[in-house]
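Anyone up for a design puzzle?
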């Protein structure tokens, strides 16, 4: 991914049924201008509704989340990080992933 690029998807495979959960993606920009944004359904984070294959990994319907990068989201080169937060509709169960890093080229 390059600075200023948009329209691509960020997908995270959690390999468990997410259809009855609220899903969030926490996106953190690199230093020196660290900015952390919590993206929800209102910003376009969704549970994937069809099976897809990326490389040698299969993402099953209802078991991954995806976010289509919007213009202005990727504004800095360097090591970005993201986490996924999943909570039940009753807000009593939360699952967080570890930080996943990806590099953005200038």
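Challenge accepted. My sequence:
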């Amino acid at each position: 991914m390059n600075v200023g690029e948009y329209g691509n998807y960020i997908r995270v495979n959690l390999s468990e049924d997410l259809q009855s959960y609220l899903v969030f993606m926490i996106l953190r920009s690199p230093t020196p201008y660290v900015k952390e944004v919590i993206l929800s359904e209102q910003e376009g984070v969704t549970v994937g509704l069809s099976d897809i294959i990326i490389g040698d990994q299969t993402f099953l319907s209802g078991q991954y989340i995806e976010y289509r990068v919007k213009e202005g989201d990727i504004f800095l080169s360097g090591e970005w990080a993201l986490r996924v937060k999943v909570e039940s509709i009753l807000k009593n169960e939360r699952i967080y992933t570890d930080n996943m890093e990806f590099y953005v080229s200038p």
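A detail worth pointing out: The longest strand covers residues 78-88.
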